[in-house]
Amino acid sequence: MGYEHKEKLQLRHWLVYGVFGLFLIGWIYFLIRTMAKGEQTWTFYIFWSVVFAILAGIVIYLHSLKLVVKIGEKGISYKYAPWTKHKTWISWDRIKSCHVIQSPTGRTWTGYHDEFHPTFFMNVDANKGILLETTDGTTYFLGIRNLQSVRDAISKYMKID
Q1: Are residues 133 and 57 in the same domain?
Q2: 101, 128 in Cβ contact below 8 A?
Q3: Rounded to 5 degrees, what are φ and ψ at 127?
Q4: Would the pTM of this model clear 0.90, i.e. be above it?
Q5: Domain finish residue from 45, 63, 81
Q6: 129-154, pLDDT tens digit by residue?
Q7: Which residue intervals of 38-94 are DSSP H helices?
Q8: Residues 44, 92 within the same domain
Q9: What is the C-alpha to C-alpha distance for residues 37 and 45, in angstroms, rounded to an integer?
Q10: What is the per-residue pLDDT across 73-113, written as a single tens digit (0 to 9) for each?
């Protein structure tokens, strides 16, 4: 099946990886420096190794976040890995309203952003997306990057509010 629009989003903000990278490098430096002194117990090494493993796990988890949004004649589908194993389809006849939203970029980093509750929020790039309301009252926010392509694809099947 051909799609009018297909987008794959992954979390690749250099600031996020930079901060966690600095923490990890600092932890390694601290452990090596402390081991060189030889003053600590095994409990100390185990504790700091566990903390390092947790930080590394967070970086690996953030790197694995992936959202795939597809728009076609059947409707809009999304798969939000690693949280969903299969793609979910929202057919055009189930969509009551659709809004293409772009918030100012600064809201992404300040924490001051638009919130839509209760909403199934699937996003890795926080300032652009599609806000969908279905006929059963469920609201979805699907992150996107290419606004014009999404507007063009959706407008072929329904009116965008």
Answers
A1: no
A2: yes
A3: -105, 0
A4: no
A5: 63
A6: 888 889 988 888 888 888 888 888 88
A7: 42-64
A8: no
A9: 13
A10: 899 998 988 877 888 889 999 999 888 888 766 555 444 44
